[in-house]
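Input:
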Amino acid sequence: MLLGQDHITEEGEFVINMGPQHPATHGVLHLKIGLDGETIKKIEPHLGYIHRSIEKMCEQLSYRQFIFTTSRMDYLSAHINNQACVLAVEKALQVEATPRAKAIRVLMAELTRLASHQLWWACMGLDLGAVTPFFYAFREREAINTIIEETCGTRLTQNYMVPGGVMMDIHPNFQKRVKEVLKQIKEKAHEYDELLTGNVIFQQRLKGVGYLSKEDAVSYGCSGPTARASGVSCDVRKLFPYDGYEQLKFDEILNTEGDSWARYLVRLGEMKQSISIIEQLIDNIPEGDFQAKTKNVIKLPKGDFYQRVETARGELGVYIVSDGGATPYRCKFRSPNFSNLSAIPKMAEGAKIGDLVAIMATVDLVIPDIDR
Amino acid sequence: MTNEELKYSITELLPVATYDESGEFLNIIIPSDELIPLMKELRSKKEFDFDYLFCLTCIDWKDHLMMVYHLLSKVHKHCIVVKAKITDIQNPKIESVNCIWKTAELNEDEVYDLFGIRFLNHPNLRRLFLEEDWKGFPLRKNYVDENMIKL
Amino acid sequence: MDIKNNVPANKLIFPGQIHETPDGGFLITKLDEVINWARSNSLWPLIFGTSCCAIEMMSAADAKYDWSRFGFEVARASPRQADLIIVAGTIVMKMAPVLKRLYDQMPDPKYVIAMGACTISGGPFFYNTYSVVKGVDHIIPVDVYVPGCPPRPEALLHSMITLQEKIKNEAFFRKS
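Output:
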């Protein structure tokens, strides 16, 4: 079905298929790889193995309902995806969330980012053949999941944010638990470095592999840690702040090397920044309502609205075109993974086939977010 | 540049363009055959320098199709939205912007898959998400699927 | 097997009375139990996760939930080495033939757990979608269904224990 004479494009070129069922693609990605010996000549991504027609569904759902579909898109940053949707609706309605709601949203978003990067770190080890990091990273990830579950009621695909604020107030134990987890993560941070960062074999697998230049990163529309490792300043939290990020002190982690090792370091640095953001906010959650008043049936004015947020993987854009009705006329999600994926053929050009796994692990793709 | 300055400079380049400033960004609406010359100017001129195409999509307005390009300049930090109107809905086609921004390649594949717009001079136009033999273009408003269960 | 058939015709007829025991007799029943005990406690799952549920499946493998307590920890990347497929995540039209092929490649006896609302019925993607398969049982036979979006790791463990019970009651040698 997949291998055939017509796919062998040049003489001496060997075509192999990676995926759709492959443990290192983190889902059902299908890459058709043209090889010369062991060297990658070109890669053609074939998508759609988890295309769930979310954009078509959104055209039938109301502005309160369509939020839940996005937590199934990039399920590792479910809170941040929801945040993008409610911010887009709020922008159109010209409603502002209450200060308490904003603080809770940022806290949840940063906890999600932390948990997401921990899962990336675990999978990174698994992909490159180290099983132990998986158990270390999941220890902290489970603790964060438990906190989120106490407040939001679910562990993974949360649906906590509503236009105007959040669905319910935080759990009484929330602040205490978050501080405990942060303490635990900081105490165990050296284990992460001992297991992978300082491991010479691991460094050799990543250094100089999958180089992406700054110009290419911009041209391919990369965002998030993938682009920041190439020196492109693209943190939406800094450039186009939302939900009170402008009042918080944190650094945009930049690296100019552009290889897999740089992407690894950027993500590790981001985890530290997330911890710092949570520490600034956790004792300063303003009192007051957790939800601003909005109408039961939301109707957006005519026009188009674009809202971007920074997920754990890059810039997510929600583009809503409204014709004045109770459902979106057209809803487009600009997914960070989709653009990052399009840069993978460029990164892997000339690399060895074994390095492709390392490149994909550092780009950290979530396939349902690509296919939508 | 502010929206006003952008509008002024672009009017000099392309007098047929119309504008919509109701939203957050400056929207420029152009006929589809003017797309490539304008985009090349927007990318290469130093005062515009739109190097980052961050969203490429299409809207089906039933009587015409609208290609939407969201552009950002990493240098000047200004945004612009270019909308290209395609009036021929039976056989829609438009020039590919893949030669200007490489991210357009996969995005245009997606638009071809879901809206059926043919991109001219595209290196490898194919159905990205659905099978090659899928009938119809699902995000068109006139798409009918008898197996779809309506709420 | 009837013992009378093994007695040659020219020999004396077996003097005692032979009782037909249900399910094939003492020895075979016990052998079945031993085999089922061994098979049910060493199920090798195939790593097959398409979306969100795969993350909860990974959680079930970590130290907190630890599915290796029940003998599931040998997760294989190849269907040829697996005897259990946990379908974790939505199956769309384009993925359906791939899933069928994976299932066909698994050696018999093989089992299927449908994890999550999407695999059971299409779940949140039931209405107004054009590409989602509304239930994985349209493609392959399912042994255990686990509801939830996504199910908790405990629910997945429960489903696996249920599957073990099912295997323990299977007839391997004896007539069912």
